[in-house]
Each structure stands twice: as structure tokens, then as C-alpha cells.
Amino acid sequence: MKILMVNKFLYPKGGSETYILELGAQLEKMGHLVQYFGMEHPDRCVGNAVNAYTDNVDFHGGSVFSKLLAPFKIIYSYEARTKIRKVLDDFEPDAVHLNNINFQLTPSIIYEIRKWEKDGGKKCKIVFTAHDFQWLCPNHMLYIPQKGQVCERCLGGKYGECVRNNCIHNSKIRSIIGMLEAYYYKWRKTYNLVDAIICPSRFLYNKFADNPLLKDKLVMLRNFIKAPENGYDSEELAIERPYVLYFGRFDVQKGIKTLLQVCRELPEVNFVFAGTGPLEDEVNTIPNIKNVGFQKKEVLNGIIANALFSFCPSECYDNCPFSVMESQMLKTPVVGANIGGIPELIANGETGLLFEAGNKEELKKTILDLWNDKQRISVYSANCEKISFDDLDTYSKKIVECYKGNCQCVE
Question: Confidence class of residue 166 from pLDDT cuts 50, 70 and 90?
Fold first, then answer.
């Protein structure tokens, strides 16, 4: 098959970029032809044969003129339609796999794909992987950042709530633009033109299922996980054992504020943090936290494998966090918040423990109980060894069935 992978960023940046790059490489190993469409960027590492990409859009900077045009480009992009048409005409894909497209590429490209089909008498499946809640909520997260709370007021198409709460970067203007984009594509029923929507968690699946236009297009397919290829080693970091681990972004919505309060109140527990983010300075002020920063994969795997247990303390609706899956793959139990898709990954009292999201006292007690019960950790670790997630090869075969229109076989 010929597959066009579409994502606004075409270089390693975050979860969706890791997804398209690893999935695309695996599909090529399986004998499929894969090309990519998105924004041009100095770090772009994949592409298409006609070198057609949109300009690198930065909505946080640029000239006054570009800022005036930005609202229109966020909602609808003629440039993206023109550029993707060049790729479609040249590559003639059997399937287009959409990922993060809103704002920089815009859902307007869906119309160009269907127009290309009609103009040339082609047949092309459009598959979308929902990495977040973008098609349900203008700020992607079902979360009000400045209030630090989850929010479902936009579900059902009530996007004015985004403006009422300044949900996008705490900006009235940006929130209005996000609201207008959401209403525009709801009015045009754009997402109904997609053949299949891949949902990595049952939680996200259920949220999408509230939309009657999308309900029959949903496919529940949890993310793939890659086993360590080159072993792992973290000895060079000289981390004192035993320790417990948080790895990921140091951000409020990830529950770090609450976790840091607990760290201060448990000086007898050795915490290791691996990552970066806005709260990094605060992380570095706590004596019993060793912050090792961002680490390459082989070293991070060693840190995870040698931890007593890890944390996923999110206070937003995490979808299908890789941190939980990676920990369990390396036989490390997880203490996770009972929110979003996290409880689907942790068998409470078997492979880890769940606590009420944002509940400092419950998190503190959970950590202390487990820290003082090494035997229970051993049992949880042994149970983690029994967990199986799709590897990249298995996952890719299921995705190919979706490209063929056989989505029912992967549920």
C-alpha cells in the first residue's frame, strides 16, 4: 500500500511525532510505501517526493502582518490544501493517516483529499489517530489550565466555554479563535468525512462516542510499546538506591505541584525526577529529589528498571500515557492517578496502586505504604511481567487493516 502520513511537525518533538516516525518506519519494513506531509522546518527528517510542505507557522512570534493573518490560517489553510494536493497528485496514496493537524495544517486538508478522490476517480481511506481531545475541545485537553481543573463543558459542542475560561494560553483572542475553529468544522460536519478514528484509550473512545456523527467510526486500539533494543544502563548517573521515580514533563497538569508537596513531607524517601518543564526550578529546591534532567532512551530505561516504583500523578485526562506502559514493560509498578485512561493500564493492588487525582494526603499515604513494603513491590513487579501490550509490528498490522477499511477486526 501507499500511505501518506500527515502531522504538523515532521521531526522528533513529542508523542505524536514519535508515533508517526516509528509507525512509518515499521510500515516501510513491511513493504509499504510511506511519504509524509506537514510543515517545513530545519529539523525535518522525513518528507515527500515533491518537497511540498507548508511554511513553518509560529503563532507566538512573527511580524504584525503575520499576526493579523494568523487567525485565518488557524481556521482554514489554502496553502495546506494547495501543498497537500501536489503530494496527492504525485504519490497517489491508498490511505492518508492524519495525526495532529489542527491550527498549523487545519482540517481543511480533509476537503482536499476528498476533492482529489472525486476529481481523479480515486479511492483513498482517511484514518485519524486521536492523540488528544482536539476534535472535542478547542484547547485539546478538557482542562482549564489557569484553574487547574478538568472540564467537560465543551462536550456536545458548547465551545463558548473556551472563551469564558480563556482556555487557550489564558488569552481571550486565542480562545475566540479556537472557539470559531471548533464551531466552523462542527457546522460543516468535517470530521464525518474521515473513515476511522483510532482511540488509544477506552476513556477517549467513550468521549468521542458522545458525538453521533463519529460514533460508528471509532476504533479502540491502545498505543504500541517498543522493548529496549540496546539494553539499558543508568549506572553513570550514580543514583542512590532505593528510589522512586517520576519521568516526564514538569508541569502543573501532570500533577507535579501535588507531588512536590508530598516530596517535601517525606524526607526519608529518595525521589528521582527525569525530564524538563516549567516547574524545574521548584523541583531543584527539594533536597530529597535528584533531578537527572532529560535522558536518552537507553539511560532512561535503566533509571525506570531500577526504580522501586514510578508515578503517573496527572490531574488532567491523560489518554494512554507511555510512562505507565514503559514502566510496566520494565517490571516497575506504577502509582497512578485515578483519572482519564490511566486506570485502564494499572490493575489496582496487582500491578500498582491508584489514588484520587490531586489528593495530596492519599498520594502521600500510598507512597509511604509502598515504600515500606518491599515484598508487595516484588509481587507487583512480577505481575507487571505478565502484562502484554502490542509491539510495533503487531500494532502496524492492525493499522494496515484500518487502511483497508477492515477496522472491525482490531477492536
Answer: very high
Helix (H, G, I), strand (E, B) or coil at 98: strand
**Residues pairing with 219 in the sheet:** 198
**Letter for the amino acid at 8?**
K
DSSP string, 307-362: SS-EEE--SS---S-HHHHHHHHTT--EEEESSTTGGGT--BTTTEEEE-TT-HHH
Q: Is 16 exposed, middle or buried (0-12, 13-18, 19+ CB in 10 A)?
A: middle
CA 406 to chain centre: 24
Question: Per-residue pLDDT for 402 more than 50?
Answer: yes
C-alpha 124/C-alpha 218 separation (Å) is 18
Instruction: Look up the pTM and report it.
Output: 0.90
Under DSSP, is residue 16 helix (H, G, I), strand (E, B) or coil? helix
290 φψ region: left (φ > 0), alpha (ψ -120 to 50), beta (else): beta
Nearest alpha carbon to residue 217 among 134, 142, 130? 130
Classify 231 in phi/psi space as left (phi over 0), alpha (psi -120 to 50) or beta. left
Q: How many CA atoms lie within 13 A of 336 on its CB side?
A: 31
Convert the pLDDT of each residue in 146-159 to its tens digit: 888 999 999 988 99
Q: Residue 21 is placed in which grid cell?
A: 516516525
Q: Which cell goes with 49?
A: 517526493
